Amino acid sequence: MLTTKKVSLGIIGSILILIFSQVSAELIETLLVLFKVPEFISIAISGIIYIFLTYFLLKQFVIKFFHRNLNDFGIGHFHVKWKWVIIGLLLPVVVTVIYLSIPGHIISTHKSTLETLAVISRGIFFTGFGAGFVEEMVFRGIIMTLVKEKWGMMISIVIPSLLFGLVHIIGMSFNLLSILLVMLAGTMVGVMFSLIAYESKTVWNNALVHSLWNSVIISGIFTISTKVDPYNISHYLLRTKSFLITGGQFGIESSLIALLGYSLVAYYGYSELKRG
């Protein structure tokens, strides 16, 4: 029988593993660069290490602390359903196309080939698949399972989703409206990922959807925003200042358009879950 204390320690422990793995992967990247390994290769290696180090540490954690294995937490044999591959591709692409129909203009920053490769590598291997897979193993794998076993399915969808939203505002100097938008969007996208996990009985499908979203929307390869970030390769600068369209200080991930996308996919996941 899981106690509240054990669930709480499980949540804290898994988040600490995420933080430790991320810092360790970034340190390895720095060391590789110091040893003259090309930056884009160093980033790719660190992103892969980020995923596998997290997996290994979570495995040890659940074995030693809960006397269980990762299969119990939906982190078992890797397999994905084609419908989630398609939805994972469609969601960020459709959102991007909608934004391109809103008045704005494209700006490209001038970067060398190596700089461009570094941005692409970080966007795909670290921000994209690294963050996508690690966050889903932690939030929808460990945390959601523990909360479900203690308080039931509904609470298990809400609590990790709220935590997921909260994580995205820690350390940010946002105004109140932006904080509310981020919490709403973070919670909604968390609900979406949770329903995908429940429907497919594994974290790998929601991890893939998460990774594809990150790789397209926030990778820095093609960024939709209201101002230029010199790190990014290219931008679509929106002319509108509407808070609901721009997503405020956090960006388009917390916009009304993104929220609508999350809601539609969440509804589909819920429908498939009920049907199954």
Please describe what this structure looks like.
The structure is a single chain. With 276 residues, this protein is mostly helical. It has one domain (4-275). Helices cover 71% and strands 5% of the residues. The protein has helices spanning 4-34, 39-66, 82-100, 113-151, 153-167, 176-200, 204-217, 243-246, 256-275; strands at 104-108, 222-225, 234-238. Strands 1-3-2 form a 3-stranded mixed sheet, with helices on one face. Helix 3 (82-100) runs parallel beside helix 7, helix 5 (153-167) packs across helix 6 and helix 6 (176-200) packs parallel to helix 9. The chain is globular, with a radius of gyration of 19 Å. The chain starts with a helix and ends with a helix.
